[in-house]
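Continuing from the previous page of notes. For each protein in this section, the sequence appears first, followed by its structure tokens. Read the first protein now.
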Amino acid sequence: MRSIMFFLTLIVFFFQGFSQQKAGNSFKIVFYNVENLFDTIDDPLKTDNDFLPTSKVPWNSQRYHQKLMHTATVIKAIDSLNLPAVVGLAEVENAAALQDLIMSSPLRAGKYQAILEEGLDPRGIDVALIYRPEVMKYAGHHSYPSATSFKTRSLLHVKLVNAKKDTFHIIVNHWKSRSGGAVETEAKRIENAEVIRHLTDSLFAINLQTHIVVVGDLNDEPTDKSVSEVLGAKNTGEKISPNSLYNLMSSLLKNGEGTLYYKDWDLFDQIIVSGNLLLRKPNKGPVISRPYAYIFKPDWILYKNKNGEMVPNRTANGNAYFGGYSDHLPVYTIVKNGPAILDD
């Protein structure tokens, strides 16, 4: 009996070591527009009237806690073994709701740290970032207005350092929506893109090899002017330059995939990185290997619409409560710590 127990103990230690080794060799960066993660408390400084117990579609404690559990369950499922190292989020009301999220049972084991700075969005939704300090160390953050000509969500710039001492600049955004018309609102998203471009150019001016990861709901496609021309996010099929930006979603767009559905699929949720993260380095440095990015879309966060298509199962709109997850699908990429592991 003792020999069997000793053997079983060895197996446990082996798999624990294997799991830790895998966690050290690579980590996931996720972006998820969680669709209106509001608490139930009235904030007189925000337009949160659709998310109160007295709202037309009541937003009560039971529904709020279900929203937290749904959101956390999705994030955990993206990396059920180790949990994602970094998660950029959109449409979070405040730091209290973000804290409730990371303390929910699916995420508690990750010991996430949370960053959210209040912006000027009239609805009161903000971008945020959570990270696992066991995988990525905090090195500072700033929040900037993402436009000057109109009130909107701020961008969040967070510096994190991986196990190999590589610094990552994670920039979380949520650009102006298309409400009022895509053409009519295009200039505002172009302004959002100009702000991000100024920031990334400044980072490259300091260090041509800086590791940049731009994530967010851009409310434009990768091929639209704001993203491809103004921000300058190139197709990953082009020749890779270390100090240029590349849109990891370009091949997914070409395949007709999307992250939200309104009459048809749109690919607004994107991950854009500096070229140095796509170049294989024989001796050192982090790298993102093909496939560069993924859309997380298990059947359990989808529902079949009237046309028979499986689309995101959202939480609610102004007229009805559905009890789903989000009207957006999360996206993620896998970063491998150096030395680089080449594709087969």
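Done with the first. The second protein uses the same format. Note its length before scrolling.
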Amino acid sequence: MSLLARFTVIGGLSSEQLARKIASRLKARYVGYELRIFPDGEGKITLKAKPTGKIIVVHSIYPPVDSNLVQVLALVSQARKYSSQVYAVIPYMGYARQDREFLPREVVTMSLVAKMFKAAGATRIIVVDIHSMMALRHFCIPAKNATAIGELVKYFRKLHLKDPLVVSPDMGGIERAKSFANLMGTGYIALEKHRDRKTGEVVISSSDNQEVRNRDLILVDDMISTGGSIVKATEHLKRQKCGRVFACCIHALLIGDAEKRIRRAGVTRIISTNTIPGKTGVVDVSPVIARAIS
């Protein structure tokens, strides 16, 4: 029996299809679970089979964030009863934006989440394009960040774009845009964005960007939540007479009417990975997760 065959993958309800793809790539056994929600909101988890060997728990922590966090911690804790090696694969890591104290007296929740995973019994953490490496440094167990940028680039190469240009909606994402552009074989720019820490309001302060004129643009970000940054960036770029605008991200949260607002701003299409299931999640990250595990 090969080393990979001794893996069992437990798929959380938030990532069931992705977990099955990972199990298939690793030629590993797949185990699901049943979740019963009581009238008071508590959830009760029951595994459908006994896991064996090294155990991989796959479960994204997207809204409802707290419920999904408790579920994955419960799965990790149960998995540890059967194995001394439990890999927590968290394709989308909730709370990763709360990785430092931005304003006085703020709780650094990511630090607490990291401690909870260790206490639950995780021996290794694997995430996909976490919001910042600072968040990953809160873990005191081996932690790995796998990137899906290459898989997204493969998808965009098939779209036959007109003189494409990669755009980061803010300076903080310039390295991501650079990596994407290098793999695409095209150029990149970054807009200057300012966000009010208290109100969340986003303002694009870039001057005219003449280099976008008549070119198809790929707006690249790590996640799209409410869509405010993408909307503001698209409106700015459209005023510069650009071609089509594609919104590209790893994690498409698309809270509330975000998708509708983004399309109304002039985005041709939203393309994301399946770290969060949804109709925009057309790019599969199971290859990069499988490589990170093996």
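What the second structure shows: The chain has two domains: 4-148+285-293, 149-274. The longest helix spans residues 65-80. We return to this in next week's lecture.
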